[in-house]
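The protein record passed on below.

***
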Amino acid sequence: MRRFATVLLIVGPVLLVALLPMRPLLLAVWPAPVDEVVRPDGRWVLVPWLRAPSLFDDHGKTREVIGARTRPLSLVEVQFHDGVRVHGYLVDRTGNPDTESSLLLQTGPDDRRFLRVNDLAFVFYPNDMSLTDRVRLAWERLKQRQPIS
């Protein structure tokens, strides 16, 4: 009887969360790991795990061959106040406390972006987060959301 109660205590909340209508919202705020996909032509693309590209077309044939796929720990996810997210490698941080700071982010093989720190809501390393860090960040994102009227 104790084992049955323990199983209910473990499986019950999991089933309850799966049935909640709020589940899509939880997926939107959960910090997913990011894959670095290197294509055969040498280009690399940073793709969140929840939106990983399909390797097969509708007929089951291979769409493209990927040379490598990793989850680098030095990858940064930047989220702006308007909800837009950008992935890349932090190259440099410019500025000091007296001036406006900015980040230089490498977002592609030949693509670098300067981002003003004042425009950013979150900056974190999604592949280097523990479960408690992910829960804490998801909670912060939920608190920032506007209530639905």
The chain has three helices and eight strands. The helical segments are 2-19, 23-29, 131-144.
